[in-house]
Design goal:
Length: 156
């Protein structure tokens, strides 16, 4: 499985299963963190998915600034997505879930620390709301620069 294939699977999973109405794939902004997928929903809710196609990639991810300082990372909920069995539940950082992708490219959440209504899930997980605002601003600014921002006012 390639990283690109896993990103596509995780992107679809976020939109279908994570209560997100919009999501972005590997969007580079001025933020230092570039999540593989970030989805946004109502209630100030966001989901970050980090895709790992190899074990070495997962192990090196632990050294990232946002993993060492999770309060600086984005996402009200955070998941790793990998080929089935590559990452074990007991290897996850605190507050992270796990999505397995099988050989048919079907995603299945095998562990989630998040329970209850979206607005009350894991209130102790700190996130960098400023970084999320910068991210969303950057996405909307791109539409504005391409003269497409007026499309958000259309109802059909």
């Amino acid at each position: 499985m390639t990283h690109k294939e896993l990103v596509e699977v995780a992107y679809k999973w976020v939109l279908k299963n994570a209560s997100c109405g919009v999501a972005f794939k590997e969007l580079v902004t001025i933020n230092r963190e570039i999540p593989d997928i970030i989805g946004f929903g109502s209630w100030g809710f966001s989901v970050v998915v980090e895709v790992k196609a190899s074990r070495s990639d997962f192990l090196s991810d632990k050294k990232k600034f946002f993993r060492i300082n999770p309060e600086e990372g984005m996402g009200s909920q955070r998941f790793y997505c990998c080929p089935a069995g590559m990452i074990k539940k007991d290897e996850l950082p605190e507050g992270w879930g796990l999505i397995y992708v099988n050989e048919k490219l079907k995603a299945r959440c095998v562990f989630s620390p998040y329970h209850g209504h979206i607005s009350s899930r894991n209130p102790n997980l700190k996130k960098n709301l400023r970084a999320e605002h910068i991210f969303m601003y950057s996405a909307l600014r791109r539409l504005h620069l391409r003269h497409r921002i007026d499309e958000i006012y259309k109802t059909t």
